[in-house]
Amino acid sequence: MSIVKSEVLVVGSGFGGSISASRLVNAGFEVTLLERGPWRDTVPVRSMGISNRAPLPQGARLITHGIRSVRMPLFRKKPLLINNKGFFEAIFGDGLWVFCTSNVGGGSHAYSGLHGRPDNPYYWNGHCAGISSAQMDAYYDEIMDQLGSCRSKPEDRIPCHTMFLRDDEPLTSSGVPDYRVGILHPRECGKPRKIVDSNGTIRWESSLSNDSFLGSESGAKTTLDFALLGPAMKKGLVVKDMCEVLSIRKLVIPQSDGMRYEVEYKNYSTGSFETHAAKHLILAAGGANTARLLLHSRDVTKGLDGMPQLGKWFGGNGDFFAFWAENNPEDLTKSLPIAGLFKVRGSENKANIMRAGWQGVERFPLPQFLKRKLRHQSIIVGMGADVGNGHLHMKGKDFHLKYEKHNNPIYREIDSAFKDIERVTDSRIYSLNTPITVHPIGGARLGASIENGVVGANGEVFDHPGLYVADAAALPAAPGGPPSMTISVWAANVADRLIQRKKGEETKIQN
């Protein structure tokens, strides 16, 4: 069997994978990207000429394409695969449930489009030499500008936005973070226009009705498939969708062509198992799956070794989802996925609280009376920096996730915020006891040395030259707010340091 080879192989196409791959391709690297999920059937992807597309899990498709796979105590050795073109993978751990996406473009299809910095302005300080908040700060604006994000303004007239909360109401948006938004606001509310960008990609302004956590069919929400991967493909990036990496093996004997790692993956399009070698291997399979893949490759298939801190400091960014029976007179489905943050007036609570309407409910396979009811209720989301006390590990071939909610003060803050909201609005909030996160963080953390981390300032695994972690698994702490831009900033740092290293090596050869 022939082995395909690349200078750089990127695993995963979320914010970590797309940012690093696009920057490396633009710098002249030969890059291949493997993604286990499919291209999604959206207006921009169609305009790119991608023919093999899978539907978003909207309407009745939520039943057939909502879940890709499930990991739980009964299926620890191998996940229960429901549909390899499904949208979410569910990981039911001890104390924390994790939902990861599976798409070309990764979590950008399921995020709300909120773009912001960490809650702590000194977030990057003190973790290792060569990384500081002052150094990383410039990346945030650069990437947000690249993704076309902007701040919502009163003149945008976005329905149900928290900026329109009145001074006589018990809830306020004063004093909460004002994130930028990666969604094309309509120039005229209710009349979205077709937009064609400089790459010839077609998208529509938001109709303020269906740019949800289940994807944005119109392309109004900026997703990575068309925003970054499409342009990079025109410059030589090879994207192989429906290819799930199963294991990694470090090549002990130096290869004359510079190859240092081999990955085995399953190609779901052909049903075959294939091998790909690379000089530089960049892991960006998602916070939980990058760490799991490293653990599996070290402890089960024995292709890797070392990494004594692997699996530690895992967390969920304090995510907590609940159902808010607020009985709002407004139709909450007609807005942005999350229309701003809010708090109880006068509160000093540290949690980030936001509301999400049931966008796309008119297409849900539900009775009409329930759809009408849900238009006036919401999902309330609490978020903030947890302490990352989770632990990922293997027991034999079994993958285990253990997390201690009760030792995380952020959940007490969120619980207190929810109770205050119930009190001042005379409404009810219903939640599970177990946190559900869509923002798994850590497990292959940035550190000063192999004694307190897995990767150093350039994202390279301490005891595995040429192996990098470019996604949320490497983040040194929970950002507290939506982490997409912080993941992107880290990935840009990893890519740029690799670019600088190559330039340095070329300069030495020339001299």
UniProtKB/TrEMBL annotation:
Cofactor dependency: FAD
UniProt xrefs under SUPFAM superfamilies: FAD/NAD(P)-binding domain (SSF51905)
Pfam families: GMC_oxred_C, GMC_oxred_N, NAD_binding_8
Pathway(s): Steroid metabolism; cholesterol degradation
Residue stretches making up the Glucose-methanol-choline oxidoreductase N-terminal domain: 187-297
Assigned EC number: 1.1.3.6, 5.3.3.1
Keywords tagged on the record: Cholesterol metabolism, FAD, Flavoprotein, Isomerase, Lipid metabolism, Oxidoreductase, Steroid metabolism, Sterol metabolism
Keyword set includes Lipid metabolism: yes
Residue ranges of domain Glucose-methanol-choline oxidoreductase C-terminal in the record: 434-489
InterPro entries in the record: Cholesterol_Oxidase, FAD/NAD-bd_sf, GMC_OxRdtase_N, GMC_OxRtase_C
Family to which the UniProt record says this protein belongs: Belongs to the GMC oxidoreductase family.
Full protein name: Cholesterol oxidase
